[in-house]
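Hi support team,

I've been running sequence recovery on a batch of backbones for a student project. Most finish fine, but this one hangs at about 90% for roughly twenty minutes before it completes. I'm not sure whether the input is malformed or the queue is just slow. I've pasted the structure tokens below so you can try to reproduce it. Let me know if you need the job ID as well.

Thanks,
M.K.
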């Protein structure tokens, strides 16, 4: 029997209303060759404001991960918020599953909207895509923010026990949950202070609404991130880069933040948010917004003098 009420669907409608009232409109672009990308774009683009691209992670579509950031950012930027391929209304018949392909599709999408240069914020999987976008399209990305994205992880890290999970299959089972208990595993893994006591009926509703489409394709996206990954293959970027990480991230441990900071070199700075895990967008949205605006709207950052924890220099 079909459900007559879905809390998840209601929340999704609330997010749509929130995006629309913030001055954004829903668009879908045919990029050719069987590829379609959905994106929230400004109803009225203002040429005196810089452009900011927000790239979501694996956990949900763009609205669910960026809703808390729209109101603080929309007055300062022309916001573009796409659904990556196999999320929301974005999809392709092409076989590619790499973050590099996702980045090329995002670049084509932005070009179709007449955007020549942009700032980019990517969270988790979206950070992989954002980094690849900066590497492939150096002249189009001005400043980059990477949030808790293990760009510098290696395939061998899994074997060495760096991660909480022991295999890619185990990771897929948690990141693409099919049962309420797997959703609870995901919450425990992602949050520093996990939410407890959520009824199974609500979790089943979330799974049915958010986690049933493109399961095989999303599994392949996760597998492509891990397979044959080596530090020596991570391209160099030159854009000023802000790295933001949860101190207790158990999806991509803090060691990967330091690796990325070292790899980028003098053009990067690292901010570590205390009392937070991987889901920093849910746990620390106000602090993240503060760092976003300071980094993206301020003068070009000077070569780094040190790293910071919650805005204070790290020893």
């Amino acid at each position: 029997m079909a459900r007559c009420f879905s809390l998840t669907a209601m929340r999704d409608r609330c997010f749509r209303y929130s995006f629309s009232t913030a001055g954004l409109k829903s668009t879908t672009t045919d990029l050719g060759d069987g590829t379609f990308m959905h994106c929230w774009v400004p109803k009225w683009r203002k040429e005196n404001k810089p452009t900011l691209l927000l790239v979501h992670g694996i956990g949900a579509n763009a609205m669910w991960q960026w809703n808390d950031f729209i109101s603080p950012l929309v007055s300062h930027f022309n916001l573009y918020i796409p659904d990556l391929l196999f999320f929301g209304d974005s999809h392709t018949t092409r076989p590619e599953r790499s973050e590099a392909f996702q980045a090329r599709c995002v670049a084509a999408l932005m070009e179709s909207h007449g955007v020549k240069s942009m700032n980019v914020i990517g969270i988790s999987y979206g950070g992989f895509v954002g980094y690849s976008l900066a590497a492939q399209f150096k002249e189009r990305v001005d400043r980059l923010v990477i949030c808790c994205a293990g760009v510098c992880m290696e395939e061998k890290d899994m074997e060495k026990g760096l991660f909480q999970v022991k295999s890619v299959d185990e990771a897929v089972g948690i990141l693409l949950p099919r049962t309420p208990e797997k959703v609870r595993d995901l919450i425990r893994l992602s949050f520093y202070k996990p939410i407890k006591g959520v009824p199974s009926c609500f979790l089943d509703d979330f799974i049915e609404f958010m986690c049933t489409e493109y399961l095989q394709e999303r599994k392949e996206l996760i597998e492509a991130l891990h397979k044959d990954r080596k530090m020596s293959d991570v391209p160099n970027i030159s854009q000023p880069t802000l790295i933001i990480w949860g101190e207790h991230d158990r999806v991509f441990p803090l060691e990967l933040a330091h690796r990325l900071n070292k790899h980028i070199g003098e053009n990067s700075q690292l901010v570590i948010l205390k009392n937070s895990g991987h889901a920093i967008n849910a746990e620390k949205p106000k602090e993240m917004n503060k760092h976003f605006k300071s980094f993206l709207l301020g003068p070009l950052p000077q070569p780094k003098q040190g790293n910071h924890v919650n805005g204070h220099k790290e020893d």
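--
Follow-up from support: It reproduced on our side and the slowdown came from queue contention, not your input. The radius of gyration is 19 Å. No action needed from you.
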